[in-house]
Amino acid sequence: MTGSSWYLASGTDVSIYSHVAKPTISEERYMGGLQSGGGTSAVAASAHAGCERFRLTDPFITSKTRKALAAHVGRPDTSAGIPEARWMRAMTFEGLVRSERFVSELLTKTVGQLGLPRPKAVRRRDCHGAVAVTATELAQAHQKANSSGETTMLTALAVPYLHLEDVPDATAVQPDFAIVCPREGDGSWLIMGDAKDYERVRSRIDDGRMLKGFLQVALGAESAAGWSALPSGMRVHRHGALAVPRNAFLQPEAVVELLDDHRVEVRTRADERMETKARLGDASPAEEDLAAYLADLTAAFDPRSCVTCNLLSYCREELRAADDPLAVLTEIGVDRFVRPAVVGLVSGTGEVGQAPHSVVGQVNATVSGLPYWPGRLRTDPCGLPGTIELVLVKSDATALGVHGVAVRKVGADGPAGWTRRVFADPQSPLTRREMMRILGQAIREVREAGLGPVHLVVPDRPSADLLATAADSLAGVELSRLRWQHDLDSGRPALTFDGEPATLPDPLHADERLAVSFLLEEDRARAMSLRTPIVDLRAVLAAHVISGGPAVDAGRLDYLVTWAEASDPLDHRKVSDSIAEQPQTPGARLSNSVSDAIDKARRDDDMGEYDALVEAALGYRVEVVERALAVLGGLRTSRLREVHRVLEGDAQEIWGRRVALQASDLVRFSRTHRNWRNTQVDMLDADRKCSDQLTCLADTSVARDRATDAGVRELALATVVDLDPVRLDVKSRRLADGSTVVALHIGDRSLVELPSTTIKVQAGSFKLGQLPVGTLTRTDGVEGLLWDPKVVPGLAVGDELVLADATWFGKPLKSGHEITVKRPSLDNQSAPKATCTPDAYSADPETHEWCCRPHTVAEAQWSDTLAERRGRGELNPEVWPPLIDEERFDVGPDDEGPLPPPTSPPDGLTIDDLD
């Protein structure tokens, strides 16, 4: 997108001052006077704000950054830093927010969303990160707003931190931008803003990240509102703006939100800081006393959140040195409310209270040094013909950047060789297309071989997210191309949503489109519990083995595989440390050290070193995937595995129709219409119920945990108290006298896995037979409930059973030994039907409008509609307030502008400060 004045009223000018934007994120905000205030770490959004040790090691109190403090006490932080490429991406995005190309757009869209009048003119001023300059520029912007109705965007502001205006060496809050615009009457509005280069995952930004961003905006707003230098008549607006990337090209867009609650929160945090400082007074620790001071503070240690804190190593070593069973449980991340129930496993008493089966397994594995195998049988498709295994190396320099990819398909004769590719330009859209072409070719070959449903096996969820997000982006670009091509064919100019000349991309290759459509199918299916177009290998392995040590470490596939392969006892601390120190990672994201090395080689144009580093990263991922598959290959397979394949195969039959007819195969989840989403509610309920039933039938530990959950009414535990007749002590008030129940598990045995149990695949359900189904009957004066199943299993007094309400599976069948698991219905909305043909839509458009209308027709119709609206002046740039593009996938500009010079992240920052 080019041009900087298209939102302004006709005939107005744009005055852009200070053309040389501040080139990088200001490092001085994190250095020098940091001990007095400011900085993201002071924002209430901190993930560690509930920890006393974190709060009372505020640099405002200790006069040291936490990273410097950790080094001072001999436990330097080596893991919580920021990769240089990620830092450069943040600086690049912040530079775009300040760039001439986007100032007018950000400013006017922010003003328009707030319902304020259209600016008569726009100006931009740079405050250079100085408090005095900011005060001067605010005064001038206020005067311009009052005298001529101009709206000003200020960049690189510096505002005294709340309550610290009179402290000479206090570090200022430095919002990335603010907008000053006229206010009705005699005055102006000050709208505070900030820039965050959040990655869009599957077309959206995580709500938690947006919350943190707006809390930082609120800190700037609250500080500005309390500043004595704020011009008389200027008011801080109740709303704030967050500039976030609109798409993969880092083009910024303004998101506006009410700040009232956020401002209350940051003001409360600021007041707490001041009260703490005042309470300590002269008792603030001297440098020589910092070690003792730190040791006296209580840490709320959680290995999941503390990994981004500079004091992680210090707190963890403190727990490791403690001679206390509870310290071990804290170290491995057991919830504090569950610790008393499992502390006996560490202390040696062996006593176990009510605790989740997974937690008991984790503690047992930690103590014994051997993995815990719950005994669940496999239902996953990993290793079967028709699966495609993929690993990739993500670039930190861009949201969708990929350094390299390796793909292997599994045929009827077993796995083929790995196809590896290293990409010289990881940020390029052409790289994403090449990656899709490689994957699409593998998918096509699997489908042509008739090997059943296609499953893409990846090492972790971020890999799946990156693939789906890239597909979402490419689908959006392709749909835009179809509209623009129709514009050109109709003799009108191809324009973006905002009225700028469009750059027409090349059409997707057939294999590229096949891969994109498959990944979008996974994106549509991700809310479904039973759908598995993409298989998370780590999650599959985690369902079969429980590792010792921190549960968060099991989020890495290589850590989990190390435990799964263990035949001799492991020291969980040594395993955790060795995996953390491992330069390579098993998933999409690189370690900081390897990311920096790859980024440096690419910047130095040392392509030999670059290729070697990426090949090594791919090689490690391939090795870990093969080790994980080998572990799974040694496990028993569930009789319900084929049931899951049938469900996925049925769903992919509809996807095949989408692909064949090129109808709705590029529909991104974000573009599905409301009626379709509403109809999905019933499908989701049916899917969830079917998934719960199949899981409880197959997995003893899950069924037992659910049976002890007070919120689950369909399951209960029972103990056999007599055999002739069979009597049960049922631990449930719902499954009582008169209830018909079916036994799912006896001890550790899943009854559905017995050879005697019959499984029949039917059109609308799966029928399971030869199961013990009977009615519970109470007999006065006799212990327990009489149970009279038609099929009596082998029982012994004291056996523990998992019972299920037979009506949970539907109406009782006449056979007296069968239950049915209802198959969830398939998508019959916005999807081609079995009767649809390539000519069906053209022959009867009205009947086939919502099932098999091709994308070329749908986008041509939408293009005509947009052209009509544009002709009536109903689209940007003519309309006010500006319309917001919900699609967000227009093709990026040919010239992204010069990149800022490479710099290293300021010492002491963690990824929390960016996210």
Notes on the protein architecture:
- With 915 residues, the protein is an alpha+beta fold.
- It folds into 3 domains: 227 residues, no CATH class; 359 residues, no CATH class; 133 residues, no CATH class.
- It is 39% helix and 14% strand.
- It has 27 helices and 24 strands.
- Strands 1, 2, 3, 4, 5, 6, 7 and 8 form an 8-stranded mixed β-sheet that branches. Strands 9, 10, 11, 12, 13 and 14 form a 6-stranded mixed β-sheet that branches. The protein has a 6-stranded antiparallel barrel with strand order 15-16-22-21-17-23.
- Strand 15 and strand 16 form a beta hairpin.
- Helix 11 packs across helix 12 and helix 18 packs across helix 21.
- About 4% of the residues have low confidence.
List keywords for this structure.
globular, alpha+beta, 3 domains, six-stranded mixed β-sheet, 915 residues
- What is the typical, i.e. mean, pLDDT? 87
Number of strands: 24
Low-confidence stretches: 9-45
| Structural domains: how many | 3
Largest sheet: 8 strands, mixed
The number of distinct helices, counting runs of at least 4 residues, comes to: 27
How large is the radius of gyration? 31 Å
Amino-to-carboxy terminus distance: 26 Å
Shape: globular
Q: What structural class do helix, strand and pairing data support? A: alpha+beta
Proportion of residues in extended strands: 5-15%
Region (Disordered): 872-915
Furnish the topology, listing elements before pairings.
Blueprint: E1 14-16, H1 52-55, H2 59-62, H3 66-72, H4 84-98, H5 100-113, E2 122-126, H6 131-148, E3 151-155, E4 177-183, E5 187-195, H7 207-225, E6 234-236, E7 239-245, E8 252-258, H8 260-280, H9 290-295, H10 312-321, H11 325-331, H12 339-347, H13 357-368, E9 387-394, E10 402-411, E11 414-415, E12 419-422, H14 429-448, E13 455-458, H15 461-489, H16 510-525, E14 534-536, H17 537-542, H18 557-564, H19 572-581, H20 592-603, H21 607-633, H22 641-661, H23 674-698, H24 700-707, E15 715-723, E16 726-730, E17 740-746, E18 749-750, E19 758-761, E20 765-769, E21 773-778, E22 785-787, E23 800-805, E24 819-822, H25 840-843, H26 855-871, H27 911-914
Parallel strand pairs: 1-2, 2-3, 5-6, 5-7, 9-13, 13-14
Antiparallel strand pairs: 3-4, 4-5, 7-8, 9-10, 10-11, 10-12, 15-16, 15-23, 16-22, 17-18, 17-21, 17-23, 19-20, 20-24, 21-22
Helix pairs in contact: 7-8, 11-12, 14-16, 15-16, 15-26, 18-21, 20-21, 23-24
Region (Disordered): 872-915
